[in-house]
Structures are given as structure tokens and as C-alpha cells.
Write a structure and sequence with these properties.
It is a single chain. With about 375 residues, this protein is an alpha+beta fold. Helices cover about 60% and strands about 15% of the residues. It has three domains: about 100 residues, no CATH class; about 80 residues, Orthogonal Bundle (Helix Hairpins); about 150 residues, Heat Shock Protein 90. The strands form three sheets. It has a five-stranded mixed sheet with strand order 4-6-7-9-8. Strands 1-2 form a two-stranded antiparallel sheet. A two-stranded antiparallel ribbon has the order 3-5. Strand 6 and strand 7 form a beta hairpin. The longest helix has about 50 residues.
């Protein structure tokens, strides 16, 4: 970046140190001179005792000494200020070098400034933390882009293969081809819509209204009840009102994804899903639990990543596109909430979403004084 020419920070600090030393020396010498001129008698005896000296003679004799001292202080201030400024600004030089390395695309570099905790150390540690988060975010975005490309390429490749088969075999039954193309196309549309929803949640481009999570949980459970009955899963909803502020459509999508995952990843014919809501001071909670196979904590910790499935990427008729919990995580963060996934001791998964509670009507209508 082009800048206007000017003195460096080290030169400015050096001149400041030298100026301060010169000012202090001048004040000290002036104080000594004033003391001799005004606080001693008008004439005073030199050590040999032969003659008296007046103020004019004192000033004339003292002036060369003052000049020598001031020159010494100037040189001392400039040299000492240059060295001290260099030592003081050395941490900033390391931070600047790390910034340039990061600007060139290398986010793995860290400052790791040694020494005691001071303002420069805090700045360097904050910069290292920022670089670590950026590196993790960029790596996550690259994985997401690679996975999205793979997922989008799969239905396109299948469609191309089906069309090639149909072209090479004109007498082939088109009914089966049409059905398979419809299934593949539907899956591609679902994946595209999921990606758009995920992008919308991450950009927080939605309006916010008062929403009751308990009503949304009942709506999601009622919508997915036919799927649960088909798979022999019981769904129970309970809890108190949970008022929050956010997008009703996105929060319904969040709850629907959680209930859908709880039904699909369950014990067929003998499983159960529990959907509960509640409120705490300043927080509302939505919890979705389901029975299922025991899950290891390392696997649970990765389930909210895009295109990760608890079934080790095995596709079934309701396996989804691998963005269900990723969308839940994004919607939760867009509403300033937290998402917690934990394996149940008896098998299955417990998902907890905590969102800020909506302000009460009394506090919302109270004007600040």
C-alpha cells in the first residue's frame, strides 16, 4: 500500500527521547544558574579569597559549560533513544513480518512472542489466535467446497450415465429411466436447496420475529409423524413455552432436521424420539434425543461438519445429503445460540440447542433512563 513519505516510528521515538532529555537537562542547568544568580549573595568569595565575582562574570564563565553539557545530552539522547526505540519496537517488527507472511497466503505462521505479558505480548497472542481461527476456517471452507463439488458431481455423473445407456439402447424401457432420472434430479435439487439454506443462515440474511420453540417442536414432530410410524419409531414432545427471537422458517428447519435425523438414525421398529423444550433465565433450550446404536465421542464431535453422516456415508431412502446437522449448527450460530451433541449412555444421540430468550413484554417496553 502506497503511503506518504514521512519519518519512521523509531525516528519519532528517538527524537522524542532526545527532546525530553534535552528539556530535562536545560531545566536542570537553568535551575542551577538561577540558584547561583539569585539565591547567593551579590558578591561571594572564590576559594583563593582575593577577589569578588559578580553575576555577569558568573554567566560568562558558566555559558561554555552549559553548551558542552547540552551537546552531550543531545548526543546521548539521540543514541540512547535510537537504541531504546529499537528495542521497544522489536516486537512490532515481528508482528509486522507475521502479518506480511499471512497476507501472502501462509496462515500457519505464528509469532509466539517470548517474554512477560505486556501490551505487545497481548497483541501478538491475539494475532496468533486470529491466525489459528482463520486457518481453521479456511481449511473448513476448503473441505466444504471439495465435499460439495463431490456431492454435486455424483448426481450429474449418474444422469450422464443413464442418458448414455438410453442413447446406446433405444429399445430400453423409458419408464425405468424416467424414474431413476427423477430420483437423481430430486436429490440434486435437495442438495442445492440445502446449500442455499446453509449460505442464507451463515449470512444471517433473515428477519427476526418472536417465536415459541415449543410450538415449532410440535409442528416438526407432527409433520414427520408419518415417517416415524413407517419406521416404527415413537415420537414424544413435551416441555414448557420457549420464547425466543429469530426466523420462524429457519428455526422450523432446524427442528425438523433434528427430528428427522433422530427418526432415521434410530432402532427400526423399536426406537423412540423425545423432543423437549424449556426456559431458563435468559435462555431457551430445545433438546432432541433418540435411541440408537452406541456412538463414540470422537464421531459425535464431527457430526455437525458438512457432509458427515453417522452411518459412515451409507445412503438409504432417507439418508439426506449430509448437511442436516451442519445446517442446524449454522442456524444456531446465526441466532447467537450454542449447539451441543452428546452420546446417550444407552445408545443414540442427545442434541441440545440453546438460544437467547425473548425479552419479556415488560422489559421490552421499558424505556432506559
Amino acid at each position: 500500500m502506497d503511503r506518504e513519505p514521512g519519518p519512521s516510528a523509531r525516528l519519532k521515538l528517538t527524537l522524542s527521547y532526545a527532546g525530553f532529555v534535552m528539556l530535562a537537562g536545560t531545566l536542570l542547568l537553568t535551575a542551577v544558574l538561577v540558584f547561583y544568580l539569585y539565591f547567593l549573595p551579590n558578591g561571594w568569595l572564590i576559594t583563593d579569597g582575593n577577589f569578588m565575582i559578580n553575576r555577569a562574570l558568573l554567566v560568562r564563565e558558566f555559558a561554555p559549560f552549559i553548551a558542552v553539557v547540552l551537546v552531550f545530552l543531545l548526543v546521548f539522547g539521540l543514541l540512547g533513544g535510537w537504541v531504546l526505540a529499537g528495542r521497544m519496537l522489536a516486537p512490532l517488527t515481528r508482528i509486522t513480518d507475521a502479518t506480511r507472511v499471512a497476507a501472502n497466503g501462509s496462515l500457519s505462521h505464528r509469532i509466539r512472542l517470548p517474554g512477560r505479558t505486556d501490551e505487545f505480548r497481548e497483541l501478538a497472542d491475539a494475532f496468533d489466535t486470529m491466525l489459528a481461527r482463520l486457518e481453521a476456517h479456511v481449511a473448513e471452507q476448503r473441505r466444504f467446497a471439495a465435499n460439495a463439488s463431490h456431492e454435486l458431481r455424483t448426481p450429474l455423473a449418474i444422469t450422464q450415465s443413464l442418458l448414455d445407456v438410453a442413447r446406446n439402447d433405444p429399445e430400453r424401457d423409458t419408464g425405468e429411466l424416467d424414474e431413476r432420472l427423477r430420483v437423481v434430479n430430486t436429490r440434486a435439487i435437495e442438495l442445492t436447496e440445502a446449500l442455499l439454506l446453509l449460505s442464507r443462515a451463515e449470512q444471517r440474511s433473515f428477519s427476526r420475529d418472536h417465536v415459541d420453540l415449543s410450538l415449532i417442536a410440535e409442528e416438526a414432530a407432527e409433520t414427520l409423524l408419518p415417517l416415524a410410524e413407517k419406521r416404527g419409531i415413537t415420537v414424544e414432545t413435551a416441555g414448557d413455552a420457549a420464547p425466543t427471537v429469530g426466523s420462524s422458517a429457519l428455526l422450523l428447519q432446524l427442528t425438523t432436521n433434528l427430528v428427522h435425523n433422530a427418526i432415521v438414525h434410530n432402532l427400526p421398529g423399536r426406537g423412540a424420539v423425545w423432543v423437549t423444550t424449556g426456559g431458563h433465565p435468559g435462555t431457551v433450550v430445545l433438546t432432541v434425543e433418540n435411541t440408537g446404536e452406541p456412538l463414540a465421542q470422537p464421531l459425535v464431535a464431527t457430526l455437525a461438519e458438512p457432509f458427515r453422516r453417522g452411518t459412515e456415508r451409507i445412503r438409504t431412502d432417507h439418508a439426506g445429503v449430509g448437511l442436516g446437522l451442519a445446517i442446524v449448527k449454522s442456524i444456531t450460530h446465526a441466532h447467537d445460540g450454542t449447539l451441543t451433541l452428546a452420546p446417550r449412555p444407552d445408545g443414540g444421540l442427545r442434541v441440545t440447542v440453546r438460544l437467547p430468550a425473548a425479552p419479556s413484554p415488560a422489559s421490552a417496553g421499558r424505556r432506559p433512563r
